[in-house]
Amino acid sequence: MKKSKYNVAVIGVGAVGIEMLRVLKQRNFPIEELRVFARSSRDIELDGQRYSVKAISPEGFEGMDIALFAGTEGEKGASLTYAADAIKRGAIVIDNGADFRMDPKVPLVVPEVNAKDIKKHKGIISNPNCSTIQMVVALWPIYQKVGIRRVVVTTFQAASGAGRGAVEQLKEETFFIASLKFGNIHVNAQNKFLPQQLSFNVFPHIGSFVDFDYTNEEWKLVRETHKIMHDDRIKISATTVRVPVRTGHSESIYIETKEPVEPEKARNILSKAPGIVVIDDPKNNLYPQPLDVEGKDEVFIGRIRKDPFIKNGLWLWVVADNLRKGAATNAIQIAECVISSLR
């Protein structure tokens, strides 16, 4: 039933949970009561506001309308344990974790692409992986106009995508190298959260290696895109790379369209699409950079150019804040769609 305000629970106060609290406030989500849950109770302060965090329990979801699970990539999330309890008590669960994404009964939603799928939910809606979200936002307008046969994507993913521990590792390594005045750039950090040194380095290893020696992070880009766009005929191949950036994922995306599309037409299509900002003037050094998009909710696209050797080949450079559009903002947008669809 539609109401003027809703009771909302946020589960998790890691990097994504913190952004969920921030985005709820910034977007003026109509909240009657807000409850924040984590493994243990404590008080936290965010942007000058104090939040009381309660220890999570099934009873804590009593009376909640929406439950936002922050999730943890690479680990089983709290939603596996508590989503059923929240649903049983009347809440609609929006889960940022990976546990339900490929469940055929659970919609996997990016509002700019497949908001209509929200209506199919049975109490739970999944938020896609961060790298998938920004890619499908960029692909969808072109797919609708000229079709897409093939996608080859290389991601350049920030430390924050792996959590606070990875950000701390990057900071510690960078400070250590700087203290040596760059005499030695090899570091054995005490905070070894990632499998390799991240500062002054990149490595093509996000997630665990599975089928065909692709990582599960790379397969997410394939399988989640197929599900969101309702088209598993698109041939998608991915390489995911961790880079020494604090926040903001970048993607180099090569697409082969079904019909030819000139770069200028592609710019026009993308610039009119919801949730996209086109910055594409490379001669004046204007193109999206993660440093510039941190804290923003749009997907930024530049370096739009054709393949000189393949008639229907097109390149895109796509950047977004992985904690916001790649996680928290997308989840809140889903919640906004949910309440707008209530009668």
Topology of helices and strands:
Blueprint: E1 6-11, H1 15-26, E2 31-38, E3 42-46, E4 49-55, E5 66-69, H2 78-88, E6 92-95, H3 111-114, E7 124-126, H4 130-146, E8 148-157, H5 164-179, H6 216-229, E9 235-242, E10 249-257, H7 263-271, E11 276-278, H8 290-293, E12 299-306, E13 313-320, H9 324-341
Parallel strand pairs: 1-2, 1-5, 2-4, 5-6, 6-7, 8-9, 11-12
Antiparallel strand pairs: 3-4, 8-10, 10-13, 12-13
Descriptive notes:
By secondary structure, the chain is of the alpha/beta class. It has helices at 15-26, 78-88, 111-114, 130-146, 164-179, 216-229, 263-271, 290-293, 324-341; strands spanning 6-11, 31-38, 42-46, 49-55, 66-69, 92-95, 124-126, 148-157, 235-242, 249-257, 276-278, 299-306, 313-320. It folds into two domains: 6-127 and 327-341, NAD(P)-binding Rossmann-like Domain (Rossmann fold), CATH 3.40.50.720; 132-322, Dihydrodipicolinate Reductase, domain 2 (2-Layer Sandwich). It has nine helices and 13 strands. α1 (15-26) crosses α9 (324-341) and α4 (130-146) crosses α9 (324-341). The longest helix is centred in the last third of the chain and has 18 residues, at 324-341. The protein is globular and about 60 Å long. The termini are close together. The mean pLDDT is 95.
